[in-house]
Amino acid sequence: MAVDRALGPLGLTHAQYSLLASLLGMEHAGRRPSQRELADHTGLEALYVSKLARALETAGLVERTRDAADTRAVRLELTDRGREATGRAITVVQRLVDQLLAPLGGLEGRRTEVLVRELTALIDVPLDASSGVPPEAPTEE
């Protein structure tokens, strides 16, 4: 919610930001991803990425084109306006992250490092969705 509020003045939502920032990162890595590849990268549902991409195309931030080799695939690319908007949005989100992590010593703080390590451990715990009960968490040796 804080990210949505911070990005609101730029006319972006948190989900749109996630798509734009991920797309920018993939472009910097020399990739021009398909909607499916971007969905896999962001963890968002492919149908949702398609909806977001259409809205961002209408706003002039993203260009969607059919893949010549696979006509089912739609390739995404930031427009110049999209790159500019994404840069502004990244600055806003970085400021927000700095504010949120200030009590822990900032992004480079020792307490932040510990928090990230602990949260990563929680995220990495495999869940057995069929039982409805999470497996035992690994213990620290």
From TrEMBL:
<dbReference type="InterPro" id="IPR000835">
    <property type="entry name" value="HTH_MarR-typ"/>
</dbReference>
<dbReference type="InterPro" id="IPR039422">
    <property type="entry name" value="MarR/SlyA-like"/>
</dbReference>
<feature type="domain" description="HTH marR-type">
    <location>
        <begin position="1"/>
        <end position="124"/>
    </location>
</feature>
<dbReference type="Pfam" id="PF12802">
    <property type="entry name" value="MarR_2"/>
</dbReference>
<keyword id="KW-0238">DNA-binding</keyword>
<protein>
    <submittedName>
        <fullName>MarR family transcriptional regulator</fullName>
    </submittedName>
</protein>
<dbReference type="InterPro" id="IPR036388">
    <property type="entry name" value="WH-like_DNA-bd_sf"/>
</dbReference>
<keyword id="KW-0805">Transcription regulation</keyword>
<keyword id="KW-0804">Transcription</keyword>
<dbReference type="InterPro" id="IPR036390">
    <property type="entry name" value="WH_DNA-bd_sf"/>
</dbReference>
